[in-house]
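User: Here's a chain of 810 residues. Predict its fold as C-alpha cells.
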Amino acid sequence: MPNCSVQIYFIDSIVAGLNPIAIRVAVLLANCPGGNVVVRTDHTGQSPPTAVGATGATIELPVTVPTSCEDKILVEAWCDQDPACRDTKTLALPCTQCVRAVVSAAQGQCIGNPPLQPVTLSAQIGLVPGQSTQFYFDYDHGGATGAVFTVTNNTTTANTVFNHVEPPYNYPPGNYVPRLRIVPPPNECGPFPLPIKVQCAPTCPSASGASATDKGCVVVTGQGKKRRFELSVTVTTTPSPASATWSLRQKLAGGAFGPVVPGPSFGCPGGQVVGPAAQIPAGPQVVDLDPGDYEATLSFLYPFQNCPGVALSFTAAACPPDCPTFVVATPTVTGCAPNNAVATLNATLSWQTGQAAVPVSAYLWSLEWLDQSVSPPVPRKAQNSTLGPTLTPSIKSNDPGWSGNGASGGVVDLSKPGSYTLTVQALISGVSPTISCNATSTTVPPFQVPACTCPKPVVAGTEWTVTNTTAPLGPNKFQTLPCDTAAVQIGLFVDPGSYAPGDLVFDWTFPGGTSVAGGTSSQPFTFTNATPGTTQTHTVTVTVRVPGSSCAPFTRTVDVTVPGCTQPATAPTLTGSCSIKTGASGAGSVSVTFDQDVDKTSAEDASNYTVSIGGGAAMTPGVGSVAYDASTKTATISGLSINPGDTANVTVKGVKGKTGLVMTSTATTSCSTPKTGSGGGGGGSISPCAILLVLAIILLLLGAVVVVIGVCIAVPWVWIVGAIIGAIGLILFILWVIFCAALTPCSLMQTMHCILFWIIAVVAPILVAVAAIFGGLPCGIAAAVAWGGWGTLYAWLGFVMGRVGCPRIC
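Assistant: Prediction complete.
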C-alpha cells in the first residue's frame, strides 16, 4: 500500500466583531487507514476524527485563547489511525476581506416635552491593509441617517482599529435598531445592527397622608396569631393612571433591617386625588404581622418606578397568649410496699395549631396520701417544683426530691400500701394561673400502691429441672444417664411473689464443699462418685433470698443419683498400632486408639503425648493439635510433617479414663508410611501409571526435538509431526496428573524429575547454542522455546510430587 500522507494547504478565520472566533483548516489526506483526520492548533482545541474526501476537507475549530488577525498559528493534522502520518505548519491567520466592526451607543438624559433622549452612536472598524471603505449610520427613525464617512487603512496590519463617533441623535421613547451600513453594500459584508431601548420618565404622581392602624389580633391559618394593620395612603395622579405596592421590613436589634416582605398592591385612576376608598382594590390595604418594629414603604410601579414614594414606621405589639392543653396521665406503679414501690408520673402540655406557644417556667407537682403508720392516720402532702415542658419523674420510698408542705407535710413515702392522689400545675408567665387558663392545673384519680408478697416455693414435683438424667425418681430425686462422672445443669423454679425474677438471689451448696453465693436460678455441676463402679447419691442445697427486703429466705434440696460404671475399674491404655497420614508441610497426622472411652479434656491435653517422626527427637505436640473422638475412642495428633517412608512413634501417659483412673504408665505404639506414593506399585512389577508417566515425558521430549529439527531444516511437515507427538505426550501427562499421580512410585517420579533437571541444565543450553550457530535465528528460537517447555514440565512434575508427599531430590 502507498505511504500515508497529510497536507495542510491553507487556513482562514471566521470573525465576529473585530477578532476571529474560529479558525478553518483545509487538509488533503491520502492512504490513511479509515480515512479520518484529526486537526488541532495552538489557539483552539482538537477536532474529533473527521472523514476526508478525495478533494479534501475544511475543518472549523472554535478559538480558545484571544486571537487577532495575522497571528502566527501552529497547525497540526494527522491520520486518526496512524499518528505518525502528519503535517505541521505555522501560518499567519488571515482575516476576512469584509469590513469588521463593533457598534455601541451612549444614551444621555432626556430633554424637552414631550421628552427626547440624545443617543450617541459610535463604531470601531477594522480593515485589511490598503482597504478604503465608506460608511453611514441608519438611525431606524423615520428614514433619518448620518453623514457618509470614509475609513482608509494605510497601515501594514489588519489589527489597526479606526474609531468613529456620530453626533447625538434625539430619539423619542421606544425600541430601535440603528445600523452601520457600507457604501455601496457588498452582499457578504454588513450591515452591523445595534438594538437600543429609549425610555424617559414621565411626570411623577405623589403620595401623602400615609398611616398604619392597629386592628387587633387575628388567627392566620397555619401561622398562629398575628397583629393586623390597615395601611392607608392618598395618591395624586398625573393624567395617566398609576399603580403602587407596599413593602415591609422589620427593624432588628442594632438598627439593621430584616429581609423585605412584599405587601399588597393597588391601582389609581388618572388625573385625580385618590383616597383609600377609590383605590383598586378598595383600601385601606391589610397586613398581618408578628410582634416587632416595622418600616412600611409605598413604591410606584412602571412607568413611575423611579418616582419617590412614602415610608412610615410603626410597632406591632405581641398578641395575648392562648390557653394550652394540659394532660396528666394516670401514674403507673411497679414494685410493692414496703420494699420497692416506684411510681412513674407523666405530664404533657401542648399548644394547638395557630396558638402562640409560651415557655413553661415550672411544673408544680403535689402528692397527697394517708399515712397509716401512726394512729390515728395522718393526711400528708409533698411537693416538687421542676422544669418542663414535660416531665416524667419517678418517686420511691423516702424520695429526697420532694419537700413537705406545712405541719402535715413530709417527704414522699411509698413504703406503705394505700391510695395516693397527684395534682400538677403548669406555671406559664402571663398565662397561668389565670381564670381563663384553669386547664393548666390537673388532678388525676388516686392510684394504688400494693403490698408486697414474698417469694415462696412452688408445688413439689415442678420446681426442679436436672438435665442429662432419666425420668425423675421423685419430686426432688433424679438419676443421671452417665456413670461415675456426670455433668448436669440444675434449675430451681420458685414463685417470685411481688418481686421481679432478677431481684431474687440463689446461694448454692454442692457436694465436696463447692458453693456459689449470689448465683442465679440455674447452675452447672459435675458429679463424680468417690468410688468408681459404685452408685452414689449426691445432695444439692440452694437458699433463695431477696437482699434488702423483709422476706425470710427459704431452702430447697435435690438428690442426684450417679450410677457406678459396670466396666472394670482399670486405667486406659492403647490398643493396636497407630494410623498415619503423610504431609511434608505440616499437614500430616497420627492417630492412636484407647481401649476404653476416656475423659475428652484429658485426651486432648497435648502435654500427655510425645511423638518421634522418622527417628528424630521426641517432641510434644502443639497446644490445640490433639482432637478426641469418643465414638471411636481415637485421639488424632495433627500439624506434623511426615514424608513417605517415615515411621512415627507415639508415647501416651496421664490420660484419665471415665472411671477416674489415670494412665500412670506410659503406652507406646508406632506406625509407618509406604516408601512410595500412597498407592505406589510394589512387588517389583511395573504399574500402568508408571508406564504412563515415562511415555508422556518421552513423547514430550521427542516431540520438541522433532519440532526443532523441522524448523532448522525448514521442512514444515517435520515440525508438524513433532508438534503432534508433543501434543499426544501433553495429553498423556495431564491424564497421569489427574488419575495416577498418587499411585506412581515415588522413586520413579524422582528419577524422571532428575532426568528433566539434567536435560534443562546441561543438554538444552548446548542445543540452543548449536542451533543458533549452525541453523540461524529461527532454529535458535525454536530450540529456546523447547528449552522453556522442558523447564515448565520440570516445574510441573515437581509441584505434583509435593502434592502427593514425594520429596524432590533434584
